[in-house]
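Exercise (ungraded).
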Amino acid sequence: MSTSTTGPDRTARTARRPVQAAPRGVPQSPLEESGRGTRWVVAIVVVVAMLWTLVPLLWMLLSSFKNSADVTAATPQFLFTPVLDNYRNLFTGANNLWPYIWHSVLAAGISAVLAVCLGALAGYGLARTQMRGKKHLAFWIISTRMAPIAAIVVPLFLIFRGLGLIDSIPGLVLAYLSFNLPFAIWLMSAFFAEVPPSLEESALVAGCTRWQAFRTVILPLTKSGLVTTFVLCLVFAWNDYAFAVVFSGPNSQTLPIAASQLVTQTGIDWGQLTAIGTIVVIPMMLAGLAVRRWLVTGLTLGAVTGE
Amino acid sequence: MTKIAQSSPGLRRSWPEAPSEPRIRFEGKMMLPGLILLAALSILPFLALVAMSFSRVRLLGGVRLELVGLSNWVRSFTDADMWMSWLRTIIYFVLTVGLEMVLGLGIALCLYRVLRGRNLLLGLILLPMFVAPSIVGLLGRYLTDSTFGLYAYVLRSLGFTGDILGSPTSAFAAVVLMDVWEWTPLIALISLAGLSSVPQSVREAAAVDGASGWMTLRFIIFPAISNVLLVALLIRSMDAIRYFDIIWVTTNGGPADATKIVPIRLYETAFRFFDFGYAAAIGLTMLAFSILIARAFVRMLDTRGLTR
């Protein structure tokens, strides 16, 4: 970097660094205060990234308020008279959206609650246990979370057929637990591992049982972990399509299935479809952003703790 | 003699914690309900999968398995279409994960220099992650529709005419980009967390030493966040194998099999052709891959001590 400063003198060489920084003029902290060129690059990248990210979402939102002519207009319509027809059509008539919403809420909600409860118990056990096969146990848990859905669906389909769980909410809940439960165990265990064991030790000294120590000392300290785990489990289950498309029927079809059912041989009602899309997406975005602070921890399964 | 003497304390090592033995029991009890359910949901299907992969599965009149030996496996390794699917899966995997890593890191580096409003920008950037993949696919179809799609319209005015999801190359590119749209934010989020953990003092020292922006990046920032990037890569890799909803609702493997990656073929084999035995063999092969990646992930956590 400093071929220009040549000094035969050895002592000058050692003193070179501070000297060299000076002629560059601006005291450089290359990240925060960068040159004008870099600043432009940053601005352009950020703007392009925002457009790339937000245009599809805004377009979905806009289109859901368009009438059928505007939705499929050959020239994209940016200015139009907003109408509520699409939403009104979704909630009236024989085939309305309420049952689908109800199924989604039940299947995703119950599976998330169960995953968090069982996950908190097992996660605590996993974080504190000193048993021998701990590493193998942990590996088994993470590998069930990472198993490809396509590989699980096939045998589960046969098992569920045998048990009469096809087209039922309990069936969907179980299917969702197959990925949410290992996720919750692993993540909660990462959250519990950050709570120093000395805390429950002192609770034990104070006369608590192990369960009381867990319940009254440890659990309140991991409240953010519980909420994050719940939200992420909810999002994973709510957004599922691969399981629902195989396991659900008229009694259990969820919102993503409702959306895909609008795709028919005769054509697609894009107005209604964008409206369903908006309904599916908004609650999960709000839930996800509510746990922003712990998202990094949650989505990396506790491997990276953020911010 | 010595062997016995040596081995018995070894055996006894599990007992010396006798005073704290109830402690072990307590942890076991805590884990029990969750692990039993997890075992029922993972070991049972796994055994069923193994059994099915060696059988022909009859569905009518109750589920029956007829052993057929290795024929499903032989078929899965000799099927030229299957090899093409694997090849396509690898290309899809490398393109999506690669693009997401590069773009995600790029966005994180830029966002990192934004001082005011960074949180708001990051919040907006994150939104695609929460969109159901099937909705991403359907929305992608709407945007690329050759008569009224917004993106098709933009491309048309740039000179690209043609049905985006209708021709093999552009359909493949489109499903890759939809996945990139949804999951680049995840990489950006994780990378940004890594960047924020590089101490200010280190960067200042580099600046004082006259390091250029690129050199700071190359020699200070990248080494410091390489662990975090590796986590991001592994997490994303595992999920990239899991999800295929986007392709399922956009092209469903077409046109002319151009986007028929392995999970799509598996679904088709099982639920359209009802060949569960063959599907099980494919599923087990996929499972082996994902376990390899999971193993790398756990091993990295162990050696680099990111958590426990």
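Further reading is listed at the end of the chapter. For now, observe: The first strand of chain B starts at residue 55 and ends at 58. Chain B is about 75% helix and 5% strand.
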